[in-house]
Amino acid sequence: MKTCSRLQAGRAAAFACLLSCLAAGAAPAHAALGDTAPPEVPQASAPATTQTLAGGAARVTGYVDARGTRFNEYIAARSGQIFAYTWQGPTAPDLDALLGRYAADWHSGAAALHAAGRAGLHAARVDTPTVVVESGGHMRGYVGRAWLPAALPAGVAEGDLQ
Q: pLDDT (tens digit, 9 = 90+) per residue, 17-27?
């Protein structure tokens, strides 16, 4: 039986940790609100569902993240821009990552809502000129949606975002 020093064991553990981090980082990434959607690539580990909306004005791609939350990504057919997201599942999404460059608008809108005493305990709607975010739920049951009102394609209404 071969023995190894603590230094060698530490290096082996560090290498194993590095490999697991790289493997986790290789998980499919999704673009933020307002970004151009990446081309569709079939994924064996997390198959996505796709459907059209408003006579082809938009497509909706559904996927489940590693934590079990189901997302619908709404993409304008003409521009390829992601104009909305909806979610439902056991964990709340990272809204800063999901909203991308619109996260600051959401933060300022949420702060104004809170300062006015209108922030709900289990649900909130932050409505700014650039982005609207509705979120709510309770532990292990989160729901919400976020969209860019000015980017809704013709024929797509707020009520279509489910």
A: 322 332 333 33
Q: Is residue 1 part of a domain?
A: no
Question: Is the pLDDT confidence value at 154 over 50?
Answer: yes
Give the count of domains, the chain. 1
- 50 in any annotated domain: yes
Q: Which domain, by its residues, includes 148?
A: 6-160
Q: Is 38 helix (H, G, I), strand (E, B) or coil?
A: coil
Listed in sequence order, the residues at least 6 apart from 52 whose beta carbon sits closer than 8 Å to its beta carbon are 58, 59, 60, 77
pLDDT score, position 121: 66
110 lies in some domain: yes
Sign (positive/negative) of CA torsion 87, 146, 66, 35?
Answer: positive
Task: Read off the pTM.
Answer: 0.74
* Secondary structure (3-state) at 26: coil
pLDDT digits (tens, 9 = 90+) for 129-140: 999 999 998 888
d(CA 5, CA 18): 20
Sheet containing strand 123-127, edge to edge, reads 49-53, 58-64, 70-76, 82-89, 141-147, 132-138, 123-127
